[in-house]
UniProtKB/TrEMBL annotation:
Annotated Mvd1 C-terminal domain residues: 214-348
Protein name listed in UniProt: Diphosphomevalonate decarboxylase
GO MF entries: ATP binding; carboxy-lyase activity
Keywords for this protein: ATP-binding, Lipid biosynthesis, Lipid metabolism, Lyase, Nucleotide-binding
Organism: Tenacibaculum piscium
PANTHER family attached to this UniProt entry: DIPHOSPHOMEVALONATE DECARBOXYLASE
Transmembrane segments: none
SUPFAM superfamilies according to UniProt: GHMP Kinase, C-terminal domain, Ribosomal protein S5 domain 2-like
Length: 365
């Protein structure tokens, strides 16, 4: 599929008022997306686990603009976050609507009231752009489906991912579950730079219900915005090698996910996390996004793994929080270890226990 396939053309139905609510998850990348070109095209393919408990719930109320008011050139919307008007989020969403209006011209026919809430604390250092953008995309696709009932479920998933990507790259991976790939890769059938697809091969049962506990080591605002971060890769001395390595890592992980070699999984996932941070350490300007407690936690995880012959490991996103990953059969022991030995490194002892999930869910009132 190419971009032209996503332009909505014919609408057979007339909708005056409509309201749709979607719950869409956050995701955690195993092979990281870091570096992109216009328009939101990744420099390498990435793969993530879709999460279950960390999600956004968004309702969009659509009200058709009457014929007396002339058709607008820009989307008209209001934004509420956790019940309060949120004008500071508006520019980002306005830019998103500008980017997608070519593909969804019908948004100009409506006034949209967007109301959103997250399941995780707002200031937790957990990026909400993936779940936030994917939820808006799903609400728009519900309207598009009402206007054009012939759309298939497969097209809806692809277009929602395509739109979400234009809002935030990683959001493209927050429509489906449990493992999702974004970016064209020779070994992943159907993969594309334009939208994400479900990992298309049989996954080894060791990865069923894989667990992710997010340790809130630093709940502050992100020190480096993703825009700044991705831009750092433009003049980066190691960028080209990194993009090659990420694609090679996805090849290796494609095999590992099928053969269940968990030791190789651990090695690859931790190396990806540290490489992401190494890219920031070696860019100019340079950033250290880990905090002392991030390192304390990593060392504790390594110690526990050796002493208990465990399959616990960690990954990081572009911040200080640590995602602790472990198979379901170690849940009881690892959760005790986290409670007794890792919680103390978290701000206010806070962490979020999550598990791999299935993707976007419509909520019918
Ligand atoms: C480190 O998706 O937040 O989490 O496309 O600019 O919105 P934008 O970036 P974003 O970048 C995510 C980077 C990452 C790795 C990943 O999720 O693959």
């Amino acid at each position: 599929m190419n971009t032209a396939d996503f332009i909505s053309r014919k609408t057979s139905e007339t909708i005056i008022n409509a309201s749709y609510t979607w719950q869409t998850p956050s995701n955690i990348a195993l092979v990281k997306y870091w570096g992109k070109s216009e328009p939101q095209i990744p420099k390498n393919a990435s793969i993530s686990f879709t999460l279950n408990n960390c999600h956004t719930i968004t309702t969009i109320d659509f009200e058709k603009i009457t014929a007396t008011t002339s058709k607008k050139e820009k989307a008209i919307f209001e934004l509420f976050f956790e019940g309060k008007k949120k004008d500071d989020f508006k520019p980002k969403i306005a830019k998103f609507f500008e980017r997608i209006q070519e593909y969804c011209p019908y948004i100009l026919d409506y006034k949209m009231i967007i109301s959103s809430e997250n399941s995780f604390p707002h200031s937790s250092g957990i990026a909400s752009s993936a779940s936030g953008m994917s939820a808006i995309a799903m609400c728009l696709l519900s309207l598009e489906k009402a206007l054009n009932p012939s759309l298939t479920a497969d097209f809806i998933h692809k277009k929602a991912s395509f739109l979400a990507r234009l809002g935030s790259g990683s959001a493209s991976r927050s429509i489906e579950g449990k493992l999702v790939v974004w970016g064209k890769h020779p070994q992943i059938e159907g993969s594309s730079d334009l939208f994400a697809v479900k990992f298309p091969y049989k996954i080894h049962p060791i990865f069923d219900n894989y667990c992710d506990t997010i340790l809130l080591v630093d709940k502050g605002e992100k020190q480096v915005s993703s825009t700044v971060g991705h831009n750092l890769m433009h003049e980066h001395p190691y960028a080209e090698q990194r993009f090659i390595q990420a694609n090679e890592n996805l090849s290796k992980l494609t095999d590992i996910l099928q053969n269940g070699n968990i030791k190789e999984f651990i090695n690859l996932v931790e190396s990806e996390a540290l490489t992401l941070h190494a890219m920031m350490l070696t860019s100019n300007p340079y950033f250290i996004l880990m905090k002392p407690n991030t390192l304390e936690v990593i060392n504790k995880i390594w110690e526990y793994r050796t002493e208990n012959n465990s399959n616990i490991c960690f990954t990081l996103d572009a911040g200080a929080n640590v995602h602790v990953l472990y198979p379901e059969n170690e849940k009881k022991d690892v959760e005790l270890f986290i409670k007794n030995n890792l919680a103390e490194y978290c701000q206010k002892n806070q962490y979020i226990t999550d598990v791999v999930g299935l993707g976007a869910k419509q909520i019918i009132a």
